Amino acid sequence: MSTPTASHPLHRYGWNDAFATDFAPYETDGLRPGRVVRVDRGSCEAVVAENGQVTSVRAGTRPVASPDPVQNPCTGDWVALDLDQRVVRALLPRRTAFVRAVSSQRSDGQILAANIDQVLIAVSLADELDLGRVERFLSLAWESGGQPVVVLTKADLVPDPVTLSYLAEDTGRVAPGARVLPVSAATGRGLDTLAALIGGGGGGEDGGGGTAVLLGVSGAGKSTLANALTGADVQRVDVTRDGDGKGRHTTTTRDLLPLPGGGVLIDTPGLRGVGLWEADGGVARAFTDIEALARDCRFHDCSHRTEPGCAVRGPAEAGTLPLRRLENYHKLLRENERIAARSDARLNEKLLRNWKQKKALGRHMMERKRGPQH
């Protein structure tokens, strides 16, 4: 008889009734549920329940390897483990997933975290706010199925409370539906609020705490924030530079870290680029103000450029809708369309290749049936 999820040792790692239901078919085969905390080439580290305790095991991932990188195991996945052979036999269905394009020149996706409840977008106040980058992260965050939270890190570098409030308001205007939270790992500002948000944010109907993924560019303070939330030096941080308070982000893997107050955090390496990946819905959620205006356009397929009766261009020209925001909206839509077109072209090439292979095989079989010709 299976252990109730609320008392299961993996409950603090996010185990709940939904995952237990998905795992049920594998239980009869003697497999064990586990959650991936780190992925290496050809293997992963996962936490599993042993004799009522949580322990870490190394398991091979070859049985579930896929040519599609998005379908391969990643940090945050729940898996069915064969502990005798030390291999992953199956991946449980993902509830949510944060996926980005590998690069703007390729049509491959890269999954950064699975089964997440919150997407923490770290934005350093040591730098000038890049609102366009925030909008890009938000588009992917909404597409992931998680709830975005914009975390303004290094708030101690903005000692004037009025200036800090303006920065938070500016960020909030480009993040409709998302929470904006200034934090400081140095002073502790906002850490309790953020920890409570993760700990109570989505463990399921039986309340196991949430899973948050921490994303941002290098130097955004993610490792320092992860250490502050876990209460331990789990991630190495290089010495900050004099003058700007920036540290070099030294995280090289995506690690799932349990938090003392409940919930888990997936820390990630700093991202140089964040390409959109099948994020039509995410872009719409990140730009709900523009989408709302567009409903009053004369034409349903209005591009908001030169069409008569456009309800978006007027506010942009009047300044009530920042022109920069509208331009970035167009930019992200174009980028998403390019990625989708490349993905479709790659799929068509694969289908054509498979068709040619089947045709060649059929011709070969026919020639074998006929036998040698004299």
Task: Quickly list its features.
six-stranded mixed β-sheet, alpha/beta, 9 helices, 374 residues
Could you please describe the fold and organization of this structure?
With 374 residues, this protein is an alpha/beta fold. Helices cover 33% and strands 21% of the residues. It contains 9 helices and 13 strands. It has helices at residues 17-27, 131-144, 161-173, 191-199, 222-230, 280-286, 288-294, 313-318, 323-370, and strands spanning 32-40, 43-50, 53-60, 78-82, 87-91, 97-101, 109-114, 118-124, 147-153, 179-182, 211-215, 255-258, 264-267. The chain has a 6-stranded mixed sheet with strand order 10-9-8-11-13-12, with helices on both faces. Strands 3-2-1-4-5 form a 5-stranded antiparallel sheet. Strands 6-7 form a two-stranded antiparallel sheet. Helix 2 packs across helix 6 (280-286). The longest helix has 48 residues, at 323-370.
Q: Enumerate how many helices there are, as a single number.
A: 9
Low-confidence stretches are 203-207, 239-249
Give Rg in angstroms: 24 Å
Strand order across the biggest sheet? Answer: 10-9-8-11-13-12
Helical proportion?
A: 25-40%
- Characterize the largest beta sheet: strand count, sense, and whether it forms a barrel: 6 strands, mixed
Distance between the termini: 69 Å
Number of strands: 13
Question: Strand-and-helix sequence, N→C?
Answer: HEEEEEEEEHEHEHEHEEHHHH
